[in-house]
Amino acid sequence: MTDVPAGPDGDALDVGSEVVVDVGPVAHGGHCVARSDGRVLFVRHAIPGERALVRVTEIGSGGRFLRADAVEVLEASPDRVTAPCPWSGPGMCGGCDLQHVAPPRQRSLKAEVVREQLRRLAGLDVAVEVEAVPGDDDGLRWRTRVEYALDDAGRPGLRRHRSHDVVPVDDCRIAAPGVRDLAVTDATWPGARAVDAVTPSASDPVALAVGERGSVEDDPDVRERLEATWSDDHGTHTLARDMTVAARGFWQVHPGAVAALVGATMAGLAVRPGERALDLYAGVGVFAAALGEAVGPGGQVVAVEADARAVEHARDNLADLPWVLPVAARVDDAFGVARPTKGGRRGRGRPRRPARSPLVPTSADVVVLDPPRTGAGAGVVRAVADLRPRAVAYVACDPAALARDTRTLVEQGYRLASLRAFDVFPMTHHVECVAVFERTDA
Ligand SMILES: C[S@@+](CC[C@H](N)C(=O)[O-])C[C@H]1O[C@@H](n2cnc3c(N)ncnc32)[C@H](O)[C@@H]1O
């Protein structure tokens, strides 16, 4: 075990040590920052402004910081509530970070994180409000896709925080009623690695045993409903269509998320008939559908997605919009941009620069980017800017990645025109942002 350097009073905190701290600001990742004798602690289960007894759970890399849980609150925040889930708390399920915080304060904490990431990594000072998704009052019973972990005996549960241990959560309070009704936790699942429970909005719920290598014995397609309304310079638009997605494929897990994100993206871009649009990291074509409807038959949409099965689904989902072209490729490959190297060691694994795909146009009017948690990266963002789109919408599930890519876009001559953030993962520290950028010389 790595000892952390002792504080001025000579004591050394180690795993299991307890200390009283004043809890400081929220930090990215579901914890707050506190200090003890000059040492930094990332404290879970606390709220800024509280005084709490914390127990050290882990020594951070190189002993530079400590992770800790608040095990006793000595001075409570007025925003502290009793966690609705009995499986939440120190040493318990790691799925939720904020069960002990009143939902409005959960959103203001997430807003502080987004604002801080943009300030620190992009040098921008932006007012941020995290909006509740319409109809979501208490932050419970929203999660339409849950992957249950299994213990050695095949009993389902959810993982302990930063651990492979399985906590026998019998009723996850953020799981949608359709997931609960599948009663995955009433059975044992010998031989499986995990069990996925999915309750799609437009077809029947399914429970899938996931095999050792991630394969699924019977991985059916499900139907999800894309509904969105937005207003822009050209009026109010409503989109409603059912889309096919693999049961284990990507679809937003909050039933209100797609409407919120598509609505904000399309309102921000104000797409005109006849324009050319790119949907990057397109999945089964959610944004491509909205863009395709907006540009109409005189326009063009190119939707780039790496997952071959998702692209097949996008082709079916968008077959009635023949001016939308789904392309099966990694976005970086499609732009001829070198893939990010692992480890970044000089001289090793020189990044391969693929040939640019002829299917990707060399100019565009608008671009939607909806990358995975790691973000698009500087190479892709520069390639997007080279298309000289009048507007770019960046849909982000990680505020740090958004802030890094924002910095690149600003360096390339774009300004952040609007930012909306949505609480599509209540009770957890996660937040989804829609940032719209415009060319400064437009
Ligand atoms: C956050 S999801 C968004 C999907 C879609 N826009 C939606 O809203 O349903 C990110 C998508 O990017 C895809 N993806 C991940 N890395 C990629 C890459 N390098 N190039 C292209 N697609 C990628 C994933 O398969 C996934 O479908």
UniProtKB/TrEMBL annotation:
Please name the Gene3D superfamilies in this protein's record: 2.40.50.1070, Nucleic acid-binding proteins, Vaccinia Virus protein VP39
Checking InterPro entries in the record gives: MeTrfase_TrmA_CS, NA-bd_OB-fold, SAM-dependent_MTases_sf, TRAM_dom, U5_MeTrfase_fam
Extract the GO molecular function terms from the UniProt entry.
rRNA (uridine-C5-)-methyltransferase activity
Keyword set for this entry? Methyltransferase, S-adenosyl-L-methionine, Transferase
- Give the CDD domains listed for this entry: AdoMet_MTases
The TRAM domain extends over: 12-72
Annotated binding of S-adenosyl-L-methionine, by residue = Q252, Y281, E305, D370
- Residue numbers annotated as active site: C397 (nucleophile)
Gene Ontology biological process terms in this record: rRNA base methylation
Biased region (Basic residues) positions are 342-355
Q: Where is this region: Disordered?
A: 338-358
What family does this belong to?
Answer: Belongs to the class I-like SAM-binding methyltransferase superfamily. RNA M5U methyltransferase family.
- Indicate what this protein is called per its UniProt record: Class I SAM-dependent RNA methyltransferase
Give the organism's phylogenetic lineage. Answer: Bacteria, Bacillati, Actinomycetota, Actinomycetes, Micrococcales
